Amino acid sequence: MTSIPVPGLAGALESGLKPEEYALIVQRLNREPNAVELGLFSVMWSEHCSYKSSRRHLRAFPTHGKVVIQGPGENAGVVDIGDGQACVFKMESHNHPSFIEPYQGAATGVGGIMRDVFTMGARPIALLNALRFGDPADPRTRRLVSGVVSGIGGYGNCVGVPTVGGEVNFHRGYNGNILVNAMCVGLAQTDRIFYSAAPGPNLPVVYFGSKTGRDGIHGATMASAEFDAESEAKRPTVQVGDPFAEKLLIEATLELMASGAVAAIQDMGAAGLTSSSVEMAGKGGVGLELNLDRVPQREAGMSAYEMMLSESQERMLAILVPGREADAQAIFTRWGLDAAVIGRTTETGRIVLTHGGEVVCDLPLAPLTEDAPLYDRPHTAPVLRPRLDVADLSPPADWGQTLLTLIASPDLASRRWIYEQYDRHVMADSLEESDTGADAAVVRVHGTTKAVALTCDCTPRYVAADPYQGGMQAVAEAWRNLCAVGATPLAITDNLNFGNPEKPEIMGQIVAAIAGMSQACRALDFPVVSGNVSLYNETDGEAIPPTPVVGGVGLLADAARRAGYGRLKPGQSLVLLGESRGEIGASLYLREILGREDGAPPPVDLEAERAAGVLVRDLIGAGLTACVHDLSDGGLAIAAVEMALASRVGLGLAAPEGVSALGYLFGEDQGRYLLACDDVEAVRARAAAAGVACAMVGEAGGERVRAAGLFDLPLDRLREAHESWLPAYMSGAAA
Amino acid sequence: MRAAVVVFPGSNCDRDCQVAITQATGASVDMVWHQETVLPDRLDLVVLPGGFAHGDYLRCGAMAALSPIMGAVRDAAARGVAVAGICNGFQVLCEAGMLPGALLRNRDLKYVCKRVELDVVNAQTRFTAAFKETRTAWMTVGNGEGNYFADEATLDRLEGEGQVVFRYRDNPNGSARDIAGIIDASGNVLGMMPHPDRAFEPALGSADGAKVFQSVLTGLLEAA
Fold it and tell me: If I label A272, which of A311, A347, A451, A617 is the partner at 20 to 30 A Cα–Cα?
């Protein structure tokens, strides 16, 4: 190893390691690592790859359940959906790169999460994304929205996987750190799931896909650091995506798997060849020898360090069944992919890399993976805010104008400008998507009458106000959205986005949010099967609002028995399920109309949540309703307007009785649904039996939305307000 | 009826077309890789599907138009086999010179995916006879380059000869004269940007697309 320099402590600090971490490496190796070896440690021990700050707390998540085939720890989670079929899914962030270079950052986020899913043997069938942007008035926001949306579309549309749902928030807290969380859902056979653990020594290791270039070097390290004024200079660490290569890679990988040639497989994502090879060998308890001269390279003269840390996209690493190399090569040739056998597994427990005829790295694998640091960072309990009493707020002078303002506010305005740039229909199984008015996307399981229901949710203003309640609420809302379309919730993936965990108050948010999420997952039988943690979302010391996003997956045994909120019919009665107390703290009304962000968020009652959700599924299954909308941002008034707009049918809400009109219309009490039905008595009877509060709150008809004595607005006017904000903003109008 | 769907690297509606044709007509559908030089025997319909053949690199459809299979597709059309290009397939047919005109970037320079209502301008073609009663159809579009362009003389000729078969009611992409689909002078070759392969049953929001494939089947039965 003569020609590789030893960078020492200074080099370690430069690559993002802490002095004590470097000392630990030297102690474990009993020598100083050379530059290549240090590169491997710096990415494997980065927050992004090692979860060193969060791992201890993530153990609180329930990860088992009767439908769980594979929980966290693999490329994606796997749940059983019956008939020998499995749903494979995961969500992952691409926050840092998307802020620096929005198109490529978002595009490669989509590409990366798809690879996680097809690496497990699943064909990707749906994409969702949870996006957070800064204040619309921030001069950077428009460019970031435009770049991220076209990046997501540019990649997903070309690969041919429909983008069916998602969520978008705007808040000044994301001005310097936008969030781009992409979720992919795939379909596999339960007996054809593929894993990454190398099954034994002396097996050929094959590299296939795109060539390795110098892009994305140290992306994982960048994603584990805060931003400052110099971040622009990190643009070269953002990878460049090629969706056409990804499409070929999907087809080749699935064909290779079907051929029986694959013994283990892993995509090259963050930390590229390093993490894929180390994880495959580490999980399999074997060693690995790779000859880097054989790696397909885009340019001449790449160093071992560059090859090992490159995050060039659309690349896979597989361990083949011995003797099947030629069969594999035929498949790669057919799909026009580069491929090479670059090494073999060994019995040594070490990773040995050669380059230019010389050994450039010889490390024991254990310290890279199992011995990665695990921190119990100090954390302080979040400071909670007192509950707001709606009676202390004066009602708006003009209710109609208030409603128009809210429905056109950045967090509630129509997302049409965004989703019309996404192909939502390719694969011809999208039954409910962004455009059709449903709380969750519904995608048919191809060739069957079953469907999966998909959603992603988080209400950051609740989490900011109370991380524990906010964490619970994120899980509860995902569960509610799945119930609202008639699906049985199965499991979640999560994407935990926070600031710098080395600050006790940020760590306090993380700990409390995870505890709240875990509590909700347990109570709702909604285990966590995969996830991703994105920390250090800070710029110049300013952290993002805590944003633990939940991606929920549910199952509809019969896709024909589903509900949406665009199916309201004139003459139907409107029924509100769930308890209403007029919780106005941390509400959208408070923020958008009064400019206040104080108050405790609405509390989550998991028992009531469960009862209401089970009841709604029962009502949909019994055919008593096909029109359901959960109550969330903006409360009853907004749910009613959204139902009316999506259905193109007006409605009238009854006057509130014995409660404040403000709490009644805009309170955000949890665990509630608005539904339309023909037979109120039958609904009432089932609600009574289930112990769920049930009130008739209005009826459908006409072309206006009314609330007795409060407002009376034509649908067209509401639609105009709802639809015009985002296109006007994106075309340059003032925020 | 016997049909084939050509698969280019980057095609992504190949399976959708296969399922739609089978469901609409009961036909068996062969998938034909672009590097083949012959099509299956006794074929009645060839579909060039949507997607991003060769990544749409260089220019949409430009490389696919030079694929080995395209000679056989051209010969089939000349023999009277129905050839339909949908979305990217329409772009390929234009690049191959089998249909006049070109598909440019959309008017507002963005990809657009939405439901569109179509007027069936000519319901006397082998692809549209089943629309004779309704003369209208709901389908979806999903494209970044769906803006149909041809010179004025060509557009006049297409309209004069009944070669414009589908027109948008609310033009989503700036297409000349609201054109959504055309046929060639022989009537054997159809190109359309909207996706009949995504509108073949009510669960997908519309079953109108099935009529495109059913028209071909009915034509065969009547000729037999």
Answer: A347
**B74-107 tens-digit pLDDT:** 999 999 999 999 999 999 999 999 999 999 999 9
Task: Report the C-alpha gap between A640 and A722 in whole angstroms.
Answer: 13
pLDDT at A342: 97
Q: Which residue has the tokens 């609420």?
A: A473
Contacts of B142 in chain A (CB under 8 A): 157, 423-426
Say yes or no: domain B2-223 is CATH 3.40.50.880: yes
Tokens (6 digits) for A705: 């939305």
Determine the Cα–Cα distance for residues B220 and A241; give it in Å rounded to an integer: 46
The answer to which of A90-104, A216-230, A631-645, B146-160 has the lowest mean pLDDT is A216-230
- The reply to whether B87 belongs to the active site is yes
Confidence at residue A219, expressed as pLDDT on a 0 to 100 scale:
66
Beta partners for A287? A346
Q: Does A239 touch chain B (CB under 8 A)?
A: no
Cα–Cα–Cα angle for A685, A691, A695, nearest 5°? 60
Q: Identify whether A722 is a catalytic site residue.
A: no
Are B204 and A425 in contact (CB < 8 Å)? yes
**Is the ipTM, as predicted for this complex, more than 0.90?**
yes
Q: Note the pLDDT tens digit of each residue in A657-685.
A: 888 999 999 999 999 999 999 999 999 99
Q: What is the DSSP string of A610-634?
A: HHHHHHHHHHHHTTS-SEEEE--TT
Read off the tokens for A649.
């049918």
pLDDT of A417 > 70? The answer is: yes
A154 part of contact set with chain B, CB < 8 Å: yes
Q: What's the alpha-carbon Rg for chain B, to the nearest Å?
A: 16
- State the pTM of this model: 0.96
Domain ranges of chain B: 2-223
DSSP-derived pairing of the beta strands B112-120 and B164-168: antiparallel
Q: Tally A–B CB contacts below 8 A.
A: 85
High-pLDDT (> 90) share of chain A, %? 91
| DSSP H helical ranges for A319-366 | 325-334
- With 0-12 / 13-18 / 19 or more C-beta atoms within 10 angstroms meaning exposed / middle / buried, residue A59 is exposed
**Residue A57 scores a pLDDT above 70:** yes
Query: Is A654 exposed, middle or buried (CB count within 10 Å of its CB: 0-12, 13-18, 19+)?
Result: middle
Q: Which residue has the tokens 């009238």?
A: A652
